[in-house]
Amino acid sequence: MSYHKAATPKFPHILHGGDYNPEQWLNYPDVLSEDIRLMKLANINCVSLGIFAWAHLEPEKDKFSFEWLDKIIDRLYENGIHVILATPSGSRPHWLADEYPEVLRVNEGGQRALYGNRHNHCYTSPAYRERVRIINTKLAERYASHPAVILWHISNEYGGDCHCELCQQVFRDWLKSKYGSLDVLNHAWWSNFWSHTYTSWEQIHSPTGLGESAIHGLDLDWKRFVTHQTIDFMKTEISAVRSVEPSVPVTANLMGIYNYFLDYYALGKELDVVSWDSYPEWHLPNRNFEVARNESLSHDMMRSVKQRSFLLMECTPSTTNWRSISKLKKPGMHELAVMNAIAHGADSALYFQLRQSRGSAEKFHSAVISHTGTENTRVFREVAELGKKLSALSEKIYGSSTDSDVAIIFDTENKWAMDKCQGPRNAGLDYFGIIQSCYDYFWRNGINTDIVDSTYDLSKYRLVIAPMLYMFRAGIQEKLRRFVADGGILVTTAFSGVVNDTDLCFLGEATEEKLSDVTGMWVEETDSLYDGENNSMVWNGKSYWLRELCELVHPTGCEVLAEYDSDFYKGTPAMTVNRFGKGRAYHICSIADTGLYSDLFAEISAELGLEKAIDADIPDNVSASYRNGDGEKLVFLQNYADSSAEIKIRGEYTDMLTGETLRDVITLPGLSAKIVSEV
Ligand code: GLA
Ligand code: ZN
Fold this sequence. Notes:
binds alpha-D-galactopyranose, alpha/beta, single chain, eight-stranded parallel sheet, globular, 17 helices, 2 domains
C-alpha cells in the first residue's frame, strides 16, 4: 500500500493553518481582512473555525446567528483558505446551563459544578444531547455543502467523567446488559470481598474515594463505561452532521498516548480520520532527543489507531502558556517538530492558534499572528517558510502510508488496571517508561513501528512486543498463540498475563490462560525492588541492570538465556526463549534499562531483516523514519541537537525540496530536518 484514500477529499493537500477564533474579534472590524492578508503571507490553506463559538452561533435559545460566520467562511474561501468546521459542544453558553443545570458535570464527591471553563459537560444529559443535536444540525444544514468546508471537527478534546444520577443510572443499565445478573457481576468483580456483595443494581455507584474504591472490577468497568458513554455522546454529534451531508468526513482531536483517560482505540473506530494535539516540552536541558522519541511514540500511536495517516490538529507555533515554564521554540524547532509529525504519518501542520487572543486564559499562548498584529515576527516568518515547504512537499507526502512489521502493544485498559492493582509495587509500575524503552531502538534506527492495543489484528506483524501486559483481555491469548505458532516473534516482560479482563487473577501453575504453553515457563513469585535497588544478569557476555520487579519462574520447556546474578534467587532464569510452532517467545523476567531491549531487538531485527529508513550510520541526536510513496521511499532525517550532524550514507538520495543529489554524507544543521527520497 502506498497512498491512503484522502483524509480531506475536497482538498487533498497537506493542511497548513489551525484554530482561528474570529468570534473574539467581531468588534474589531479591520481584523478579518488583516488576518486574511497575513494568512496568505504565511502560506496558510486551512483554518479550524467555531470550536468555542456557541454563544455567537446561538446567543439565546433557538435564536441563531450565522451571518458573521457566513461572511468569514466566504471571505476565507475567496482567498483560497479552506475550513475545518467544529461543533461547539466543548464549551457552552451561559443560557444553556442556566436553563438546564443537568448539563453541568458532577464530581466524584457528588458536587455539581458551577458554570465555567470547558470540556466539562455531562455526556449523558438528554438536554445537552438535544441542544448539541440542534446546533450541529443547523451548522450542517448551512455549511456542510459549502465548498470551503472539508472536515468536521467534532467537539474538542473529549475527556473526564461525570458522576451525576443520570450517569449512574445509565452505568447500571450498561452493567446489566454486560453481566445479565448480579451473581455474574459479583463473581466478576470479586465483590464478596469485605462483604461488599451487591444485592440490588441500585447499590452500584461509580468508584469514589468517598465510597467504593476497593473493587477493582468496578473501577475498570467505570472507565470502560466512561469511554463507552463519551463515544455514545460523540456518535449523537456525528449522526447530526452526517444525516445532513454524509460526504464530509469527521474527526475529533485526541491527545496522544499519555492521555489515557479515554480508550482512544475504541473512540477512533467511530472517526473517519484521527487527529491530535501535540504539545511536547521542547528544550528540556539535554533531553530534546528523548522528548522527540516520546512524541514520535504518540504520533505512531495516533497513526496506528486507524492504521492510516492522521492530522496534527494542534501544536504551538512557539510556546504554550499552561506548563510551569513557557519555553520558546528555538529557531528551527517548530519546523523540526512538524516534520517529525509528518514523518510519523501526519498530513497536516495545524496550530493552536492563528491569532493570539487578547485576554482571558490563553492570552499568553503563542500564535502565528501575535499581539503585534504583523508579519514582522520570528515566529511568523518561520511559519510562513514552513508553509512554503509543505506546499512543495504536499503532492508526494499527502496520504502516503507507513507499513510496519513491528507492533508494540500499548493497551489503555491494561494501564487502567495496573494503575489500580495495589501491589506488587505501589511506588510505581512505569508502563509508559517500558513502552518508551522498547520503542527506542526502532525509533533510533528508522524501523517503522505500530502502537496498537489487544483488540488489533496482529497477524500482519513479524515482531510483537507486549511489555507489562498485566491484563490479558479476552481473546488476546489465542491471538498471541496463533501469531507465534505461525512464525512470529513475541517478546513479553515481567508482570505479564496476571489477570483476566475483570482483574481476577488467573489460577493454576502453567496454564494456557497465562500463555505458559507459548512462553514455556510460569511465574511462582514476584519480588519487588526498592527504588535504587538492582539485580543484574549477563547475556551474550554483556551485563545488564534489572530493576523494580524480579519474577521467580519455573521453566517448563523454554531455554534459559540469562540468570539473576544476586539475591536468594541468584542463578534462576532472568530471561528465557521458547520455540512454539514456527515462532519464538522471549520473556524478560524483570524490568531492564533500555540497553537490554535495544540489544535484543537489534538481534531480532537483523535476523528478520527489518527494513530501515536509510542505509546509513545514524549519529546521536539524529532520527530517521520513512513513509511509502508511489514506489518511492520518503525519508525524514532529523537532527535534535543544537549543533550540526553528519550522516554517512550508502547509496544516493535526492533532497525533495532542492532536488539536489546527495551522496556519501548528508549534513544537517542543528535543529533541522531534511526530507530525501531514495534514488
Ligand atoms: C488544547 C485545546 C486548545 C488550546 C490548547 C492550548 O489542545 O484544544 O483549545 O487550549 O490546548 O495549548
Ligand atoms: Zn452526568
